[in-house]
Write a structure and sequence with these properties.
The complex is a heterodimer of chains A (112) and B (415). Chain A is an alpha+beta fold. Chain A has one domain: Alpha-Beta Plaits (2-Layer Sandwich), CATH 3.30.70.120. Chain A starts with a strand and ends in a 17-residue tail after the last strand. With 415 residues, chain B is an all-alpha fold. Chain B is built from 16 helices and no strands. Chain B has a single domain, classed as Ammonium transporter fold, CATH 1.10.3430. The radius of gyration of chain B is 21 Å and the shape is globular. Classes of the chains: A alpha+beta (112), B mainly alpha (415).
Amino acid sequence: MKLITAIIKPFKLDDVKAALKSMGVVGLTVTEVRGFGRQGGHTETYRGTEYQVDFLPKVRLEAIVDDSDAADVVDTIVSSARTDKIGDGKVWVSNIDELVRIRTGERGAEAI
Amino acid sequence: MDGATTAWLLVASALVLFMTPGLAFFYGGMDRSRNSLNMLMMSFWCLLTVPLLWAVLGYSLAFGGSGSFIGNFDFAFLSGSDIGADNGEKLVWLVYLGAFATITPALISGAVADRMKFSAWALFVPLWSLLVYVPVTFWIYGGSDSGGELTGWLSVRGSLDFAGGTAIHVNAGIAALAAVLVLGKRKGWPKEGHPPHSMPMVMLGTAILFFGWFGFNAGAGGLTDGVAVQAFANTFFAAAAGGLAWALTERLRDRHFTNLGVGSGIVAGLVAITPAAGFVSGMSSIWIGAAAGVICAFAVSLKFRAGYDDSLDVVGVHMVGGLVGSLLIGFFAKPGALGEFEAGLFNGGGAGLLAEQFIANAVTIVFSFVVTFVILKALDSTMGIRASEDDEVDGMDISQHAETAYNLGESTMAR
């Protein structure tokens, strides 16, 4: 089992969700986060005083998938979240040691 | 008093009273979220305490008698306000003027944001109202002799202040400066950013102030004739000119039209037209509003150079805007249809009126600064006026009021 984690632009969330659903991903967890990378931040001006805003709003999404689906899921996120502009985010994959469905107590791949 | 005047003053009283919660939202949105409820409460505290003080003592000392410097106790504890005597004339004025007294100390709250102990503010409001607002108001609007003429010494000298440019805005603005000098800077200012937490709330507050200001300026003459119409129209145009002038200044200087610039400019234009509303006509209100918009847009930056932490720019908007309007009366005042008073320089008058405007504001500035400074020093040496550093860091909402402005789904359990 793999945990796929992606940081994407907030306005791409619906596209990514639709693409993942149509390829059969059955669950997704989303968090609103803030961060910075090479995109940098922006400035805001209030009564002539400039403020540098370094942390930009992003969406972090997490999905747990079977080992055999991981590569496809990563490709789908990359293609659906891409705008070709700086700040599109990242996707990474990590191993999962154990997984339990709370309602039934099923374990491992059964619980995905 | 005829029915029309009574009806208009009742409506105008409600309009002016609505400005204090409007100001609460104007300031509350401009503050950071962890201090926004404290900001609202400082204005609402004025809505609770000032009307009662006004009934007991304030109105009588600000308007009673026929002295030069202070009123008497003739109207204390609402005596002399029986509607059987005059069909409510005294009482409607008492209420209307009480609404002005309510918003004036609330204006100061923007300067002391984020760091003043609420218990100290709670006492400061009635003390300041009684020791600063009441005497200054008497000098400009108070007393009446047997012929019905005002006897306060600044009005006898001949200075003009239609609805409170000097008595309210310059007065509160300079008091705000004294307050921040006693109180000190916020932790982290100016390096740490203090951006507004809710610009929509600021703009809503601006709208409420704008709406209420028609009662403030157009009611101040206590008239339902053309002077009231002129004051109303002047308010309408000066607000638009002030907002546009500030917004254009920012567009040229900082590249964008900002909401905060528009809201601040509207308020600056309204402040500036307040003293002049019933003394100028024609295009004058537009020039006064525009001048205030440009000058105040630069004046709010002075605090960074001079090093005083006037958090929400009470000095830059209210004192400076009030001075702009009050001094411009010396140029634009146009007697005749609006009544008998000295003409400004642009309308065939001499420099006498401008000199009186200067004197009235200088006197107010010195008196208000000194007395405010002394009140706060006295409070500081007895109870302390500055919140602890921990309270400031935690936010004034939690530390002073045990409340949170935005409970966005955090887990809470009743105890």
